[in-house]
Amino acid sequence: MKKYILTAAAGCLASLSACGGNSAGFTPPDGTLDKCTLRFSWWGGDDRHEATLNAIELWNSKHPDITIVPEYGGWDGWTEKVGTQLSGGTEPDIMQINYDWLISFSSDGKGFYDLELLTDYLDLTQFDRDVLSFGEVGGVLNGVTVSVSGRGLFYNSETYKHFGAEYPKTWSELINLGEKFHKEDIYPLDVDIQSGGTAWYLAVVYVQQQTGRQFITIDGELGFTEDDIKEALDFYKKLEDGHVIRTIDMRTDEDGTAALYQSPEFIDGRVAGVLEWGSSVGKYEMTLSEGVLEAGPMLSDDSGKSGGWMIKPSLLYAISRNTKNPDEAAAFMDFMLNDTEAASLLGTTRGIPASRTAEESLEKSGRLTGLAQENDALLEQLDTMTISPYMELAQMKEYYNSAIEKVSYNAADSAEAAHEMYVSITEYLERIRK
Amino acid sequence: MKKKYRNPVGVCKYSGLLFITPFLAGFLLFTLYPFASSFILGLTEYDGIRQPEFTGFGNFRKMLGDSSFLNAAAVTLKYTAVLVPLKLIFSLLAALTLNMEIKGMGVYRTIFYIPSILGSNLAVVIMWQFLFTSDGLVNQLLELCGLAPVGWYGDSAHAMGIIVLLRLWEFGSAMIIFLNALRDIPCEYYEAAKVDGCGKIRSFFSITLPLLRNVIFLNLILQIIAAMQEFNAPYMITGGGPLKGTYTLGMLIYDEMFKYREMGYANALSWVMFTLIAAVVAAAFGFTKRHREDI
Q: Do residues A40 and A136 share a domain?
């Protein structure tokens, strides 16, 4: 009996040694486009889904031999879904990926296809070298940046008009608005600790602007001191206490776990501002009447210091390293990035395209307008910092949100929460950088 | 002369084995193999991308100092302790009501069972979430009755209450088991008791309850197992909040596995959850031994 058990355990071990997801074979490019079916996945709001499906329809009409099967959904749970596919080697051929996925799923640059091998069909000359470098891991080009974007502030113009208020330019003006809007129980802004995770982001911008220190460096070192973290938490609490944003208690009582753009409070204009990526603000825009949502200035301190705001590649496209059709996948990726017709269908639903041809096409057709463009223009005027991919890791977000929640519910004072967060982040970063 | 009997199936002595082969294959492949693999993965550090790295019992040692695990285990036990007795009482009361002989009882039984079919439906879970928002139907009803509205999501006890209520609403399965058992109790017992002057309450405690002992125990075990594996409702309704007050072991395992990609640790946690459920069930066996017949 003992022998059988040992044999079974050895069998399990042997099969588990095949774990690692990337077990399927690597297919080199063959320089031809053959008949095939490819899967393409992305996340986003309805505006992005609609535009992308139209672009796929255009591709299918131009390339009847290469069929694209779309796989799409909202952001919530998307990382988990694609992560599971990557572990099992069943990921789509072409994927829209998030910046931090490069270190989560390809820490050695081998998790995705090396795109430098596919330049027969993928035109990389349309991108600045700096922009391309965002997609490199260990010297291997794993992803091509679709757009570079940052979070900006967007306000409900009707609510602001109702109060006769101007969009705030400084943090103090924002805090003063809290008092003004309080009379009618309306909030000038909202941040969250759920899918958006904007609460900590805003606090980080504030402290980065004050100190000039970057929260997490590009190579994954914690740049903030424990005091900086405390200051960020205090700032967040000040916004809650000043009726600038809803408390977490109030937010969950009103919306449950629903995303802000689906919240009745936002749709009714009772929450009159959001902090969102220029590349994703479309989903907020769609829930309000046209033209109601407007981009506001990036906040600075009273002396006019405006640094601290951040940018990153909002999205990248990558190709599965297990794809059987790398040339065809590269051709489709090129179409999505550089094709002028596709660009006009996709518009700015993924931000302002980083590809020169796509950007020029939108400019010529007068479509380089809207909130994404306004947000980018505002960010361009500032001395921005590039977000570290480490800042966006799920475990890191858990540390931020846990600290913010404790401070919001008064379950811990800011010093206590800051200490816990500082220790957890330091240990975690040290472990994953290995 | 001794008569020879042929195997009734008429094939050979291994034909029985042949018939159960599909089940055996399924069991080995889809139950035993993942079960054993999960334990082995629990002894590794594994992110789903790189090769698993053997770390011995490191994951299990890590749990002892992991406040998330200790909190999730405490929340799970608390939730089980609150939900299971309530659900047993509620489903028994419903079964007693539906055991009455009145016209159209079949329709009532169906109506009472519907929530159990709908309960795990995502749409119902989302509906439940909105029932308890600050402007939701429940608070509106409370205000209609002159009561103050409740902040359901801002307080751990209230948030857990929402989930308990959802699961209580799905009392159908436990109720059906009770109902079946109630219908098996011979009417003569009640008639004899009535002749002896026994009232309804006395009949319930002296006849019904003792004869339901085994079924109560069966429901107890089934409900404990289901409650300790709770995931859907807190994940969808409260997101585990506030302050991790509804963050169950199931949610922790999901997060470690899919969100943080600590797959070795998640597998180790699954084994601890399995052991914890087995321990609670064993304790339930122990505590009720005196009160139930052998089953």
A: yes
In contact, A285 and A157? CB cutoff 8 Å: no
Structural domains counted in chain A? 2
Q: Does A427 touch chain B (CB under 8 A)?
A: no
What's the pLDDT band for A3 if we cut at 50, 70, 90? Answer: low
Facing B259 at nearest CB: one of A19, A194, A394: A394
| B35 pLDDT more than 80 | yes
A256·B36 Cβ contact <8 A: no
Q: What is the pLDDT of residue A1?
A: 47
Which positions in chain A touch B238 (Cβ < 8 Å)?
252, 256-257
| Pairing outcome for strands B44-45 and B53-54 | antiparallel
In the numeric block, which tokens belong to residue A176?
């003063």
**φ and ψ at A211, to 5 degrees?**
-100, -25
What's the pLDDT at B61?
95
Q: B137 is written with which tokens?
A: 């139907």
pLDDT at A154: 95
Peptide bond preceding A188: is omega within 30 degrees of 0, i.e. cis? no
The structure tokens listed for A17 are 């040694």
Q: Are residues A155 and A142 in the same domain?
A: no
Taking an 8 Å cut-off on Cβ atoms, the answer to whether A256 and B130 are in contact is yes
One domain for residues A209 and A287: yes
Within a domain: residue A98?
A: yes
Distances in Å between the alpha carbon of B170 and those of B87, B122, B162, B166?
Answer: 9, 14, 13, 7
pLDDT score of A262 = 85
CA distance A352 to chain B (A): 29
Q: Do B33 and A249 touch (CB under 8 A)?
A: no
Encoding tokens for residue A199? 């609460």
The answer, yes or no, to whether residue B75 has pLDDT greater than 80, is yes
Structural domain harbouring A352: 29-149+312-378
Indicate whether A316 belongs to any domain.
yes
β-partners of residue A36 are A66
Measured in degrees and rounded to the nearest 5, phi and psi for residue A43 equal: -115, 165
User: Does A15 lie at the interface with B, CB-CB under 8 angstroms?
Assistant: yes
Residue A204 shares a structural domain with residue A348: no
A258 and A348 together in one domain: no
Q: Give per-residue pLDDT as tens, B164-211.
A: 999 998 888 899 999 999 988 998 999 999 998 888 889 999 899 999
Asked if residue A290 has pLDDT above 90, the reply is: no
Query: How many residues can be counted in chain B?
Result: 295
Residue B60 CA to residue B50 CA, distance in Å, equals: 21
**A14 within some domain:** no
Residues A159 and A278 in one domain: yes
Decide if A153 contacts A174 (C-beta within 8 A): no
Q: Give the tokens for residue A33.
A: 């486009």
- In degrees to the nearest 10, what's the CA dihedral of A180, A184, A189, A191? 130
Is A7 among the domain residues? no
Size of interface A-B (CB pairs under 8 A): 106
A262 touches chain B (CB under 8 A): no
Q: Is the model's pLDDT at B125 over the cut of 70?
A: yes
Q: What average pLDDT does range A160-184 have in this prediction?
A: 94
Same domain, A256 and A368: no
Verify that A295 and A337 share a domain, yes or no.
no
CATH number of the domain bearing residue A47: 3.40.190.10
More confident residue, A315 or B104: A315
Ordered structural domains, chain B, with CATH: 17-54 (no CATH), 67-291 (1.10.3720.10)
Which residues of B sit within 8 Å Cβ distance of A? 33, 36-37, 40-41, 46-52, 129-130, 132-135, 151-154, 236-239, 241-244, 255, 258-261, 263
Instruction: Decide: A146 and A317 in contact? Cβ < 8 Å.
Output: yes
As a whole number, mean pLDDT of residues B275-285 equals 92
DSSP code at position B207: I
The CA dihedral of A204, A133, A54, A261, to the nearest 10 degrees, is 0
